[in-house]
Specification:
- The structure is a single chain.
- The protein is an alpha+beta fold.
- The chain has 3 domains: 22-221, Nucleotidyltransferase, domain 5 (2-Layer Sandwich), CATH 3.30.420; 224-278 and 388-464, ATPase, nucleotide binding domain (Nucleotidyltransferase, domain 5); 279-379, no CATH class.
- The protein has helices at residues 84-92, 133-152, 174-186, 222-237, 279-294, 300-305, 307-326, 342-353, 374-399, 417-429, 449-459, and strands at 12-13, 30-35, 39-45, 54-55, 65-66, 68-74, 77-83, 101-105, 122-124, 130-132, 163-168, 217-221, 243-249, 254-262, 265-268, 273-275, 335-339, 362-364, 369-373, 406-410, 434-436, 464-467.
- The strands form 5 sheets. Strands 1, 13, 14, 15, 16, 20, 21 and 22 form an 8-stranded mixed beta sheet that branches. Strands 2, 3, 4, 5, 11 and 12 form a 6-stranded mixed beta sheet that branches.
- Helix 1 crosses helix 7 (307-326).
- Bound molecules: adenosine-5'-triphosphate and magnesium ion (MG).
- Residues 36-39, 64, 108, 222, 250-253, 278-280, 323, 326-327, 411-413, 415-416, 447 line the site of adenosine-5'-triphosphate.
């Protein structure tokens, strides 16, 4: 598994390219997709919701689902069989040599600021074979569109009834944003076309989709719309802050923006700042420790032994088993106990896994358990990522020319206590107040701030009155 992280510049700013923001018409049917590195969510409003923003239930709860998709191929037809947790489970149960199954997870990572990115960028399926990344994204968007229109709204609305918003990190370059737009057209969001149904073989020319109803598709900046949501929550509790910083820490990006709100209108006072560290780099750091225990960089020999099943077992372990425990460390427990995949244990053997002790972990061969203490996790697994995040938050504070009242902390990894504790320290040093969105009840959770805020923004697009960064809406 390619889990080690390329060194990236810790901090970059978007360029200042002043552009006029297109005027958007009022809309009563709005759908938004938060296409996150780790997770997906959809929210909407229609006349029947009475103006309220509703989050679409994509599995048993309103929680976001993992950005994972499984597609089955039958002759030349491709069918999405599952997304989210179910897709992850299906991958785990995959049989050796399953040739007709294609699986992708966390593809947004590939859209990070990479000079080599373009519309023909390829992505490998976990089960082998290369595909055009843009088409993979289009399959995911097509499926989410179906979930909203068919499953949730029982076909009472058509896709073209909606104005669609897709959220993107503020630090993304124009090329990645353009790819999201193109994928949205491929998914038929703004038309009533069924959306993508087959992959173009890699190497063949990639057809350009027709750009139907371009005015019905907007991209919105994630931290900005999260701020709109946070302000909305603040209203419930009293007069909201006037000058504030938003720190959105997700699976793959830290996105920071600073706003000044006057007469109900927002001016963005700093260009977006951020970097590509987030919750996922913690999973990658944990993977690196495991690789060290078994002395197998990238689990190369394990994967070679049985590529599909080994990758599936590692993915399940790192992005389901560890992922679950990672969210509760420090809250309910001072150590985490993980069950190692049977396939991994039988490949490396107990003796090799006993080397965990050298790294101050406990391996118990009887039930294949690995126990890791809080201090080790904090120091070796979380700290490298948290340090990079804090570096970025500090840099944003250094850019401030005026005081701020509040810091809104949103995004799933913002909920990690190792992160919030350190951000509080930075704020204390700058004598501000940390404002955390109170985790009341679904859907008012910080990780739903982006998707809910995106719908709120589209209801009142003029709320963002000016920005110093390059304009994004409508590109
Ligand atoms: N309580 C928690 N403690 C620690 N980490 C958490 C917690 N809740 C969520 N996370 C982590 O936050 C990340 C997901 O956050 P979020 O859903 O905001 O990301 P995303 O929107 O998919 O990514 P991005 O915005 O970077 O593209 C995951 O890495 C997850 O493990
Ligand atoms: Mg996010």
């Amino acid at each position: 598994m390619a889990l080690s992280k390329r060194p990236l510049p810790p901090l970059r700013r978007a360029e200042k390219i002043p552009k006029a923001t297109p005027v958007l018409q009022d809309s009563s049917c709005i759908a938004a997709i938060d296409f996150g590195t780790s997770s997906l969510s959809v929210a909407y409003t229609t006349p029947t919701t009475g103006g309220d923003v509703k989050v679409v239930r994509l599995h048993s709860t309103l929680e976001r689902i993992p950005n994972a998709i499984i597609i089955e191929k039958d002759d030349d037809e491709y069918e999405v069989t599952d997304v989210g947790h179910q897709a992850q489970n299906s991958l785990s149960n995959i049989h050796k040599g399953a040739k007709n199954v294609i699986y992708f997870e966390r593809v947004k990572k590939l859209l990070e600021r990479d000079k080599s990115l373009d519309r023909t960028t390829e992505v490998s399926s976990f089960t082998g074979g290369s595909y055009y990344l843009i088409e993979v994204i289009a399959f995911i968007l097509t499926h989410l569109k179906k979930k909203l229109l068919a499953d949730h709204l029982k076909r009472n609305y058509k896709s073209s009834d909606f104005d669609w918003v897709i959220t993107v990190p503020a630090i993304w370059k124009a090329r990645a944003r353009r790819m999201m737009r193109e994928a949205a057209y491929m998914a038929g969001l703004t038309s009533d076309a069924p959306g993508i149904t087959r992959f173009t073989p890699v190497g063949s020319p990639l057809p350009r989709p027709e750009e139907v109803n371009p005015q019905k598709l907007s991209l919105a900046l994630e931290p900005e719309v999260a701020a709109i949501y946070a302000q909305h929550q603040s209203h419930v509790l009293g007069p909201p802050p006037r000058r504030y910083m938003v720190v959105d820490i997700g699976g793959g990006t830290v996105d920071i923006t600073v706003h000044n709100k006057r007469n109900g209108r927002i001016s963005v006072v700093l260009p977006p700042m951020g970097n590509t560290w987030g919750g996922t780099t913690v999973n990658e750091a944990f993977s690196a420790i495991l690789e060290e225990i078994v002395d197998d960089k990238g689990f190369e020999s394990f994967i070679k032994s049985d590529p599909i099943r080994a990758k599936a077992a590692l993915n399940k372990f790192l992005y389901e088993e560890f992922e679950e425990k990672k969210k509760i460390i420090g809250k309910k427990t001072k150590e985490i106990v993980l069950t190692l995949p049977a396939l991994l244990v039988s490949f490396y053997g107990h003796d090799k896994l006993q080397k965990a002790r050298k790294l101050k972990m406990e391996y118990d061969p009887d039930p294949n358990k690995l126990t890791i203490g809080y201090d080790l996790l904090e120091e070796k697994v979380f700290k490298p990522t948290v340090d990079k995040i804090i570096e970025c938050v500090r840099a944003a504070f250094d850019e401030l020319t005026d005081h701020i009242d509040t810091v809104y902390l949103v995004g799933g990894f913002g909920g990690c206590q190792f992160v919030s504790k350190r951000i509080e320290e930075v704020i204390t040093q700058h004598r501000g107040i940390l404002y955390e969105i109170i985790d009341l009840e679904c859907p008012e959770q910080p990780d739903l701030a982006v998707v809910s805020g995106a719908v709120m923004w589209r209801k009142d697009p003029n709320i963002i009155q000016s920005r110093v960064a390059d304009a994004t809406y409508g590109i």
